[in-house]
TrEMBL record:
Annotated GO CC locations: cytosol; Golgi apparatus; membrane
Region of interest (Disordered), ranges: 260-289, 679-701
PROSITE patterns: OSBP, PH_DOMAIN
Organism expressing this protein natively: Lingula anatina
Keyword Repressor in record: no
Stated name of the protein: Oxysterol-binding protein
Length: 701
């Protein structure tokens, strides 16, 4: 009977770290068993167990949630939720250890433990009395048949019934004695290893007939009971189960006592231990449904970049030597900027192109200007912001985009759904071949050390723009990598003279040595200085125990208000719900059903030498063809060229000149944002309409 059960984390190894398991402490057997989930416990699919007889519990004074159990020359490490839960488990474990260790030793000192030979002697003695009683009953039966006196026959018959009842009781007693003897043999097997020949012979006697001196009268009963006894742990069942145990640690029935504590060395992908009702089809994590992508009729399809890579990265354990070499270069907390990551984990696109996916829903972005009320504009800014991250991840498997080369650029634009196209080209804009009713985007790698990417987007027809930059700072965190996105972006809504300043969350690559997956974490904000509206947003990392992935929570505040006018929660790559202070609620963003608007990029043959898709095309081509060696070769050529150019600039005392962005204080800004160009246009027209201005302008020119 289980005295305690519930979730704990068990340390597996350096590769897999702490793993979440469902534990069951059985005080009667003195076993601490664990399973991958509560459902697997119900099925009896045990992953491992710890024998508590003679075990020693250890605790760490500096950590109030962890403890160890040392037994069978092994040390098992466990972690509870908190100190209170640890004490509950330790209390139960200590009681079980005392019950199966100390009392038994004291009992051996004060009481005689019968040997199997003594058991055999008692069984033989009982069987002799049984045989004598059977013989006497047969004699009584013959006498009854020969008796002519009805009264005497009735008395003899009463004696016969009592004798037959006694015979059945003695038969049952012999069976119980045999079962007790088997339990002693089983206990000896647990304590001392495989049975010695005398014990093995004694244990095997339950399956014999006249060889052990048991009379034929009991044979039928033993055979009848034998099936049940084998199911209850007799030699037949024991030998079968121990054979199964030796072949597979995966499915040991809980009633079978293992010879030693054991732990599965090949932990399968584990499940949330608190989930009870999960169907067999849910044993594997569900794959994300593909999101609808809308492309324009005149769009150019690039087979290297526009075809989404459906191949999962799988387990990195197959790349053990590479990963081991990589880990030998790093330590926890180390900046990974100068570490060269293996090519096979790369995603087939540049980081600059990934930043463009912030605008995968361009209609939400340009729709900010359509709201007349500053509160509604702030809500729409938050709506777009929360929709901006999911499209950057093409699958649940975490892959790393290319580190941009200094001077590398990426340009693209989007058609806006339900917006009439314009023939007017915005030749003075960031992307000169884009029309006024398109959302244009340009990004540039403006620094290599530290790695800083600057990007700018605008819709000149709607008079809205975004100017931003991100310094990606990566750190090794042990079993994961943290990518801190340091920087900000400023949304300018020109018709309302508003600026919205927003920051970015941290990205985490989890389980980097098994199947990597990405999550976002950290607190960010959106603020509008003019209106006073602001939003606090928290991307929540998955808790160590339970909880869900990809959770986000946001609260939008009016100026000088302490209570939010709107709260939002849900999954940043799924569905988010909003609750307003008026009592109204709505589905705020649904990234699963919202179609992604495909960005439009010029063919590589028409791109400049340092535009991302053309720059990385050889690496991308060989990655697509799964030729990792060739991809690595071309990647090294690009990186080596960058080093040589940097060395040459250093020797000549030259500073790198950016193309589209400049540094202003701690920030990076686009050279000619929409506001600046509009101001220049107004100034130029003003001068043209002023005679005095014209003469001054002409003389100046």
């Amino acid at each position: 009977m289980a005295t305690i059960e519930g979730p704990l984390s068990k340390w597996t190894n350096v590769m897999k770290g702490w793993q979440y398991r469902w534990f069951v402490l059985d005080e009667n057997t003195g076993l601490l068993s664990y399973y991958t989930s509560k459902e697997k416990m119900m099925r009896g699919s045990r992953r491992g167990c710890v024998r508590l007889k003679g075990a020693i519990i250890g605790i760490d004074d500096e950590d109030d949630s962890t403890f160890t159990i040392t037994v069978d020359q092994k040390t098992f490490h466990f972690q509870a939720r908190d100190a209170e839960e640890r004490e509950r488990w330790i209390g139960g474990l200590e009681e079980a250890i005392l019950r199966h260790t100390q009392p038994l030793s004291k009992q051996r000192e004060s009481k005689h433990i019968p040997s199997t030979a003594e058991f055999d002697s008692k069984v033989a003695e009982t069987d002799a009395y049984l045989q004598l009683l059977i013989d006497q009953t047969k004699a009584l039966d013959e006498k009854i048949e020969q008796c002519d006196d009805p009264a005497a026959r009735e008395k003899y018959s009463v004696i016969k019934v009592a004798a037959e009842t006694m015979i059945e009781s003695i038969k049952q007693s012999i069976v119980l004695l045999q079962m007790s003897k088997q339990q002693i043999a089983d206990q000896a097997m647990v304590e001392n290893g495989p049975l010695t020949p005398p014990l093995q012979a004694a244990a095997g006697s339950i399956g014999r007939k006249k060889e052990n001196g048991i009379s034929p009268a009991v044979d039928a009963l033993l055979e009848e009971e034998g099936g049940d006894m084998e199911q209850d742990g007799s030699v037949g069942a024991q030998s079968h189960m121990m054979s199964a145990y030796s072949n597979s640690d995966m499915h040991v029935p809980p009633r079978v006592m293992p010879m030693t504590s054991y732990s599965s060395s090949e932990d399968e992908e584990f499940y949330d231990a608190e989930e009870l009702e999960r169907s067999a089809t849910e044993d594997e994590p569900p794959k994300a449904e593909p999101v609808q992508v809308i492309a324009s009729k005149d769009d150019y399809f690039d087979e290297l970049y526009d075809e989404v890579d459906q191949e999962d990265l799988g387990s990195l354990e197959g790349q053990g030597s590479i990963v081991t070499h990589l880990l030998s270069q790093v330590r926890i907390g180390m900046d990974l900027t100068k570490i060269v990551l293996p090519t096979f984990i790369l995603e087939r696109r540049s980081l600059l192109e990934m930043f463009a996916d912030f605008f995968a829903h361009p209609d939400l972005f340009v729709g900010i200007v359509d709201f007349k009320d500053p509160k509604e504009r702030m809500i729409q800014v938050v709506r777009w912001y929360l929709s901006a991250f999911h499209a950057g991840r093409r699958s649940d498997i975490a892959k790393k985009p290319y580190n941009p080369i200094i001077g590398e650029t990426f340009q693209c634009f989007w058609d806006i759904p339900n917006m009439e196209p314009s023939d007017e080209v915005s030749d003075s804009g960031p992307v000169p071949w884009v029309h006024k009713n398109n959302l244009a985007f340009i990004a540039e790698q403006v620094s290599h050390h530290p790695p800083i990417s600057a990007f700018y987007a605008e819709h000149s027809g709607k008079r809205i723009s975004l100017d931003g930059y991100i310094w990606t700072k990566s750190k090794f965190l042990g079993l994961s990598i943290g990518v801190y996105m340091i920087g900000q972006a400023v949304i300018s809504v020109l018709d309302h003279d508003e600026e919205y300043v927003l920051t970015f969350p941290t990205g985490y690559g989890r389980s980097i040595l098994t199947v990597p997956w990405i999550e976002l974490g950290g607190k960010v904000g959106v603020q509008c200085a003019k209106t006073g509206y602001y939003a606090n947003i928290e991307f929540k990392t998955k808790p160590f125990y339970g909880g869900k992935k990809h959770q986000v929570a946001a609260a939008i505040f009016a100026p000088n208000d302490k209570k939010p006018i709107c709260t939002i929660d849900g999954e940043w790559n799924g569905v988010m719900w909003a609750q307003y202070n008026t009592g109204r609620s709505e589905k705020f963003v649904d990234t699963k059903s919202m179609p992604i608007i495909k960005k439009k990029v010029k063919p590589r043959t028409e791109q400049g030498e340092f535009e991302s898709r053309r720059l990385w095309q050889d690496v991308t081509k060989h990655l697509k063809e799964k030729n990792v060696d060739k991809a690595t070769e071309f990647k090294r050529k690009l990186e080596q060229r960058q080093r040589e150019e940097a060395k040459e600039r250093l020797e000549k005392g030259l500073k790198w000149e950016t193309k589209h962005f400049h540094e202003q204080g701690e920030h990076w800004l686009h050279h000619r944002p929409l506001l600046k160009r509009l101001q220049e246009t107004v100034t130029r027209k003003s001068r043209q309409n002023s005679p005095e201005g014209d003469s001054e302008y002409d003389s100046a020119s």
